[in-house]
Amino acid sequence: MNLSNLTTYVPAKLYKRGQDYFEQNFVEQLTEDAPNRWHALVTGTRDYEVSINLTKDGTIVGSYCTCPFESDSLCKHEVAVCLAIQEHKKENGSTAVDVLTQLKALKKGELLEILEELVEKQPSVQLYLTEKFAGSSDMNEEKARRTIRKSVSRASRRGFIDWDRTDQALEGVWEVQELVDGLDPHHDAERIVRLNLIIIKECTEMLGIADSSSGDISSVIYESLEKVDDALAQWPENLERATVEGMLDLLYPHILFGLEQDMTDAPSILLEAVLQWNERGDFADKFYDFIEKMIGSKEMQNKSFDYEEERFRRCQLRVLQQQGDVEAVEAFYVKHHRYPAIRKAQILQALVAGEYEKVIRLCEESEGLDANLPGLLQDWKKLRFAAYEGMGSTAEMIDLSFEFALQGEGEYYVKLKSLVDAEQWPEKLEALLAEMKTSPRSLLLFLEILIDEKRLEELLDYCRTDVSAIEHLYPHLLADYPHEVNEIYTTYIYRLIERASNRKAYWTACQRIKDFQQALGAEAAAGLIEELKFMYPKRKALLDELGKIESK
Prior knowledge:
- Residues 48-86 form the SWIM-type domain.
- This protein is mainly alpha-helical.
- Helices cover 68% and strands 5% of the residues.
């Protein structure tokens, strides 16, 4: 990774945050302590110390930040410091050679001489120029495939593409994409589809031989899938059965390939893309049979899980629903009842139709079938709750909303409170809180309820049990229990320091002292610091970090 290509290796969100910190002038005290060894302070909610070690050409060979971020990537503070170093080098000059500027200053003859030398010594330049001069207007599927595979071959080493060579491997893809982006969907829709299918297939194969941790290859695949969908949506012709059959024949091997490779959602996305054509003509039988053919393929049957098959069945159901054959839809529900997605579609249809008794029956049946799948079980219960709402069945809604609240779902706590009579609410609330105390999933909601109901003594008791919670809960307690907040916060900081064994851990504990200072004032913080200095006179790193707080 180099200062000049941070965006290639740092995730976009992290880079944007680091850029924001840099642009807001959060980087302070930037110094080059030794040649190519940089140090800075990044301010903000808290202050973080950052060190960056570089080579002469700007390659980052080491970095360190006192923030708790743990990842192979730079953190946002390190990004901000790297950008500050870049700016410093620009403002104060650099020994690096600006190749583009040098080339622009040369005469035509000098440029030709350099180019001839490159062609002789670098075969890749010869290949690039050959492809460039051949032009891309005659790009067909075979040429697109060759173009992509050449760049893959150049980037691979012993049959593998390292993470830092994926850009080079994708050069051919980008060349094909550049051509595709210049095509008119009203005149070249089929060509757009065909070339994007080549990109999808070649990139899927590339995933099998590459370190794709950057996500660039997958991004290209999904971008091309989106372009296929757009091209089919804008298809210029009045659709005839022959056109539909031709497109299905074109997609068939690509969907099979995607099923066999099992690396992306390309098979179902391609199927759903072409299904939009069913809205432009009477092709239901053609699409239904095509999906059945895909489900019956050996590629589908060889899959260990039936998730993909379930999605394909859902597409079949969609075709039948668009056709409007009620009897066929009901028969499909019965035949493929084992798929949760099909059952859910049936339940939603009944719910929209106001068939609440049917919804309840189907939900209870699904709850039995999926008793060992907590996520699905929750979905069925929520759909049953919706049916109870439609029927006005208050008692059943109270039971379910109580259960959902115990799982930490605030929306259903609000419903529960609105459903229970005011006279009975205190008793119901006590029962809810008693069960929540032993339910980790409802912890956040439990604390929110204590705050909302002004049950501050219980909130304080919780902080005594989990002293780290005082860091976030003290604003609700400070006015009524200042001494207790001081005591719990102090205990929390002491425990952090007791467990600390290195400078970074001491630094983290001292950041909590800064928070303590904001909560309880400078005098209380000064007293705490003096106590710590007295308790740990031999911990030099701790004393150093405490001194930094006192000096500010």
